[in-house]
Design goal:
The complex is a heterodimer. Chain A contains eight helices and eight strands. Chain A is α/β, with parallel strands linked by helices. In chain A, 35% of the residues lie in helices and 11% in strands. Chain B is an alpha/beta fold. In chain B, the strands form six sheets. Chain B has a six-stranded mixed β-sheet with strand order 2-3-1-4-5-6, with helices on both faces. The radius of gyration of chain B is 31 Å and the shape is elongated. In chain B, 45% of the residues are buried. Classes of the chains: A alpha/beta, B alpha/beta.
Chain lengths: 277, 621
């Protein structure tokens, strides 16, 4: 006897992580279909590791676009080790871009911000080389207040400038997939996730975790950046479960260890409007 | 494993500019102890630098330009835990200039808080936002009357605003979950009941949030799975997409629309799944393979064979227009319906709606931020649903190459589902060739065969002219025959009623019969209102080059004055519904082969015009 209709699909009702995952997969598939050539920025932190994982899910085990590391040469050793282990294991097409030195950055920027600006310059280099129509970036709205104003598909000039005063309307999952000439799209498949979501998903999926995220001598990295401008935070969380518990009660912002954010009122906004992720 | 994640509710905060939306969010964070460490001090510092009092809005207004101008430019989101739920608060700008950003924010919401300034009362954007919420599908709305301190917490004034806005929402068919007096700046009725507003017996803002119902799933609705892409990474051909409603399982027979092909599900593909997946339901982005190899493209809508989407090339849209340039009748746009993308023409602007007064007016164009009812005609058949039946597959977005222009919700009303018109059910059919050729028939009859397709309003003179023309042509030696509306209803089409689908089938059969008679060498005159262009185009396709579309033209007033069968009178009194020209549309021909104006000429002059046309086009000597 057939089941009554209301019971038929009850077994596959979705929970929160399923819904987040499904939405991200939808975005990645739109990107892959509509924004070619396409590349994915892989900073090898927890967020872009989740994006990589989601891409493998979206495309049934393979990532059909290059993974790009914007390398300042200043990442922590464990970051490079993670990269070298999982590139072959996950079958990634890795592209490493050596970011231009700090001496070439805008001298008006505050010092830490100037250091971070090297990544924007590296990204410009990538765009010049690859003529990419789409760049996938693993930023989230809950990380930082200007990122909260982002679109999922965000058009940028080749210089990377963000016209935050005039963003395209975006609704019902219809994205701006045909940007005007001489622009590219930043595509943000993780925009709607929170920091805790990233950890819960990492736990559920068994995504390998860089040991820097776990507490060691009362300190852990909550957010991984270059060693000269990132500091670990006080923590005893030595497992993912402990990290989740910690995050559910903390009132310390995620990027507290990212020193450039608080150098001046709008230092991060300035970084972002001129191309930072 | 850690404890389960809380479920999420997305709440958009809307309302007129300066009515305190960003302030409410800031205050809500503070009063529930959710403000991140250092944030309060950072805001204090920003305000000190600007020489202004503490401003809660700076929590959300993260752009320097927003803080400097004291106005929210773009929508923002912030996460907030309370009780067993997590809320995503979506702050939407209230300035008229930024409607498209409001739409962006509100389109993601499960519920809304609509703010009204107690001192200023209901303003234009209060109403505009209320209207847009309903169009965007946000059905739960709590109304918050802010700045009660400015009117000394006066209950009378609050009741007046409540009354005014409730009756506005009522006009939209929306009942607010509650109406709350607050003062966001001072924290009155935000997290705790206020002493100043002790007369208020309803919930606080926090209580209103907790009172919103969680979003409901679409698992029980008919299956809709718009095809997003087809992958061939290895020997599997994987069809990928997101289930928008319903569900399916391995072995199900699926129908692809509008290509009208069917195939069975061989497998549901998943990577890193804990167990093999055998079924999928609403919300899931999935991939599957088919038992039969069929060709299918991005944009097709997959359903079960029963309960399929509507196939049509013309439908109504209630539109919200966001672009700077106006939308005019005849404009070409690209419509996105899920992953499907199709060129379309604006055929009619039925009405532009005055959102303030809830009245409407006729117009030739729709300006930025206006809401209108329009009719669009697509270049090909599309698979779509009425928004009322299945919201997620009944929405369209208007785009141009590099711009998102607007959006809207679709309805069919009297436009028929054309699926049966294009579905060939017979298989294993091979056409036999005639031995008598068309050329031989022409040689005997001394004229070309063909179809003279009369179209026009009821009372325009189609039947009168058709019968008189038949007589005249017969007398001149033509092989001629009239197919008339009421006549075929008695036999060939006796099993058809007057539903939109039956009307379309009526015309389809007449088109096919006319084509057969023309093939037999006859000149066929048809006399049917045939109001839909799509139906006439199908008749043209059946008859090929010998089809002549003749527009029997008379304005509605003239036809109604003639009213030979008394039908207009009955339509006006409501006795007959869906009467062409009165309560159902008539789509006049775009480029008819001949126009016969029966309002300006008498019958004889019309007949002379038709006879001359036939002599020119059909006569062989």
């Amino acid at each position: 006897m057939p089941l009554p209709l209301d019971l038929k699909y009850l077994a596959c009702a979705m929970n929160r992580l399923d819904r987040l995952e499904s939405h991200s997969i939808y975005i990645l598939r739109e990107a892959n279909r509509q924004a070619q050539p396409l590349a994915m920025l892989w900073s090898i932190g927890k967020d872009s590791n989740v994006v990589t994982w989601l891409a493998r899910k979206a495309f049934f085990g393979r990532v059909p676009f290059p993974a790009v590391q914007l390398d300042t040469g200043m990442e922590l050793d464990e970051v490079y080790a993670y990269r070298d282990k999982y590139v072959p294991e996950w079958g990634l097409d890795l592209k490493v871009i050596d970011c231009p030195p700090e001496s070439e950055m805008d001298p008006d920027l505050p010092p830490m911000t100037r250091s971070a600006a090297r990544k924007s310059a590296g990204l410009r280099q990538l765009l010049e080389q690859g003529k990419y129509a789409g760049i996938i970036v693993g930023i989230r709205r809950d990380e930082e207040a200007t990122r909260a104003k982002e679109r999922v598909f965000s058009p940028r000039s080749l210089e990377g400038n963000w016209e935050f005063r005039d963003q395209p309307p975006e609704f019902w999952d219809q994205f701006m997939t045909q940007p005007p000439p001489d622009t590219h799209l930043r595509i943000h498949p993780l925009l709607h996730w929170t920091e805790v979501d990233v950890w819960r998903y990492t736990e559920r999926e068994g995504i390998p975790v860089n040991p820097l995220y776990f507490a060691h001598d009362g300190k852990r990295y909550r957010s991984l950046g270059e060693k000269n401008i990132t500091a670990p935070v006080d923590s005893d969380a030595a497992t993912i479960e402990a990290i989740i518990t910690e995050l559910e009660s903390t009132r310390t912002p995620e990027r507290a260890g990212r020193l450039m954010d608080s150098e001046s009122e709008d230092s991060f906004e300035r970084l972002r409007t001129s191309g930072y992720m | 494993m850690s404890t389960a994640a809380k479920e999420q509710l997305r709440v958009v905060i809307v309302g007129h500019v300066d009515h305190g939306k960003s302030t409410l969010v800031g205050r809500l964070f503070h009063d529930t102890g959710m403000l991140p460490d250092g944030k309060f001090e950072a805001i204090e510092e920003m305000c000190r630098r600007r020489g202004m009092p503490f401003e809660w809005a700076f929590l959300m207004d993260s752009l320097k330009a927003e803080r400097d101008q004291g106005v929210t430019i773009d929508t923002s989101q912030i996460w907030f835990n309370h009780g067993d739920r997590e809320y995503v608060l979506i702050d939407a700008p209230g300035h008229r200039e930024f409607i498209r950003n409001m739409v962006t924010g509100a389109s993601n919401a499960d519920a809304a808080l609509l703010l009204i300034d107690a001192d200023q009362g209901v303003r234009s954007q209060s109403r505009h936002h209320g209207y847009l919420l309903q169009l965007l599908g946000v059905r739960q709305v709590a109304v918050v009357v802010n700045k009660m301190d400015l009117i000394d917490y006066d209950q009378e004034k609050f009741r007046a605003i409540e009354q005014e806005y409730r009756s506005y929402l009522e006009g939209l068919g929306v009942t607010p979950t509650c109406v709350i007096p607050i003062s966001a700046r001072d924290g009155d009725n935000i997290a705790a009941p206020s002493e100043n507003l002790s007369w208020h017996s309803g919930p606080t803002v926090l209580g209103a949030l907790a009172g919103f119902a969680p979003p409901v799933g679409n698992e029980d609705a008919p299956l809709r799975l718009p095809l997003q892409d087809v992958y061939k990474f290895d020997d599997r051909r994987i069809f990928a997409g997101r289930v928008e409603s319903g569900g399916f399982k391995v072995g199900d027979e699926l129908l692809f629309s509008p290509s009208n092909r069917t195939a069975h599900v061989a497998s549901i593909e998943a990577w890193n799944a804990p167990a093999p997946v055998t079924q999928a339901s609403a919300g899931a982005s999935i991939g599957f393979t088919l038992t039969e190899q069929i060709f299918a493209e991005r944009g097709e809508v997959i359903s079960h064979v029963d309960d399929a989407p509507i196939e049509t090339d013309v439908f109504h849209v209630r539109l919200f227009w966001l672009a700077d340039r106006k939308l005019a009748i005849g404009d070409m746009v690209t419509l996105k319906i899920g992953p499907a993308s199709v060129r379309a023409t604006v055929e009619q602007i039925e009405r532009v709606i005055d959102v303030d007064a809830l009245t409407d007016r006729t117009a030739d164009s729709v300006a930025r931020d206006e809401i209108a009812d329009i009719v669009v005609r697509t270049a090909q058949l599309v698979a779509i649903d009425s928004h009322q039946d299945l919201p997620r597959t009944g929405r369209v977005v208007f785009t141009d190459r590099h711009e998102t222009l607007g959006g809207g919700i679709a309805s069919m009303d009297d436009y028929p589902d054309q699926r049966d018109m294009v579905t060939v059910r017979a298989t294993n059919v091979t056409a036999e060739a005639h031995r008598v050729t068309t050329a031989q028939r022409i040689e005997r009859n001394l004229h070309n065969p063909g179809v003279l397709w009369f179209t026009g309003l009821s009372g325009s003179g189609k039947s009168t002219l058709a019968m008189a023309l038949e007589q005249r042509l017969f007398d001149q030696g033509y092989q001629v025959y009239v197919l008339d509306g009421d006549n075929v209803r008695g036999g060939l089409n006796a099993n058809l009623g007057f539903s939109p689908e039956d009307r379309a089938e009526n015309i389809r059969r007449v088109g096919e019969v006319a084509a057969l008679l023309a093939d037999a060498g006859v000149i066929v005159i048809t006399a049917f209102i045939s109001p839909y262009r799509a139906d006439r185009e199908r008749a043209r396709a059946a008859a090929g080059d010998s089809f002549h579309e003749i527009y029997i033209e008379a304005d509605l007033e003239t036809c109604e004055a003639r009213d030979p069968k008394g039908l207009y009178k009955r339509a006006r009194s409501g006795e007959i519904s869906e009467f062409t020209g009165i309560s159902a549309p008539y789509e006049a021909p775009d480029k008819p082969d001949l126009i016969v104006d029966t309002a300006a000429q008498d019958i004889e002059a019309c007949l002379d015009q038709l006879a001359a046309y036939i002599a020119e086009k059909f006569r062989r000597s």
